[in-house]
Amino acid sequence: MKAATFAGLELLATAVFVLDEDLRIVYANPSAENLVAASSRALTGNFFCALFTDAQPLGAKLAEAVERNWGFWDQELTLTRTGTEPLALNCLVTPVENHREARLLLELRSIDQRLRIEREEQQLSHAFANRELIRNLAHEIKNPLGGLRGSAQLLERELDRPELREYTQVIIKEADRLQLLMDRLLTPHRPPHVGPVNIHEVCERVRSLILAEFPEGVRIVREYDTSLPDRPGDREQLIQVVLNVVRNAAQAVVAARRRTDDPPGLITLRTRVARFVTIGRRMHRLALELQVIDNGPGIPPELREKVFYPLVSGREGGTGLGLTLAQSYVQQHGGTIECDSQPGRTVFRIMFPLD
Predict the structure, then answer these.
(1) What is the C-alpha to C-alpha distance for residues 231 and 273, in angstroms, rounded to an integer?
(2) What is the pTM of this model?
(3) How far is 12 from 333, CA to CA, in rounded Å?
(4) Between the CA atoms of 110, 116, 122 and 123, what dihedral angle is there, to the nearest 10 degrees?
C-alpha cells in the first residue's frame, strides 16, 4: 500500500499508526516517527505492540477492536520503549472501512504535549494582560516622576547647607532609577527591526558577554546544529532574549557555587530542528529550538509557574523584568518560550517557526 493513501495524515501533530488485521503497522505519519524515534520505512510491517515493553493490555483491546470492527478511547495510557522513560498518552482507535489492508487507525496524543499547548495558551493570555497593565502603569508613573524630580532640583537650589542637599540628591537619584525602570517596561512595545538573523551568531555574542561578566564560576558548552538556516528577526532583541535567559542561569550557578565551593557551574546552549510542533495554536512542520540548560539549584517551586510574570524574582535585588522582556520579544517574533526546572537541571526552551 502506498503512503499517498494516507497523505492527509502527514500534517497532524498527533502520532497516527495504521494497522492491519494482525496489528502490523501499515503506515506511520511523521509525528509517529518522532514518538518512537524510528522511520516509517523501518516501522512498516512490524507488530505495533512489539515497539513497547508494556503494550500487552493495549494489544488485547486492539485485537478485540479488529474482531468486532469497533473503536475505543483510552485516556492516560502509559507505554514504554526500551531504554526510555514511559510515555503518558491518550489513545483513540477508529476502524478503517473499505480498505484492503488497513483495519485500524490508532492515534496517540502525548498528554505532555496537550498540557504544553494549554500552558502556552495561558501564557499568551497572561502576557497580553501583563503588557497592557504594565504599559498603563508605566505611563501613569512617569508623569509624576518628572514633577518629583523637577521639584527636588528646585528645592536643592534653595538650600544653603550641603548636608541637606544630600537628601535632595537621594530623591533625584531614586527618581532617575524609577524612570529607567519605566523605560525598560515600555521597551517591548517598539516594533522589531527585521532582518536575517543567524541564531548561532546570537548565541556566540551572548556567550562572550557572559564569560566577560562571569570570568570565574561558569562554563558554557555549545551543542549547535549548524544546518539551521537564518530566519527573519530583530537581531538586538534576540540577543537580549538569550542574554536575559543565560544571565539568569549564570547568576544561579555562580551563587550556588559560592556557597558550596563546587567546580564551575555548567550552562549548555543547544540548538536543533524540531518537527511538527504547535506554536501559537498553529502546527508548524519545522521550528528552530534553542535550549539553555544549567545545572544550578533550580527555580523554587512557588515561582515556577510565575517566572515570566513581571516584577517576580527569586534573586535578591532582582527587578523581575528580564524573563518578562524575553517572553515579549519571543512572542513578537512569533515564537514561544517555556521553562522546566528541577534541582540540578533547569531548561529554557525557545521555539521559532521556520516554515
Answers:
(1) 13
(2) 0.59
(3) 24
(4) -170
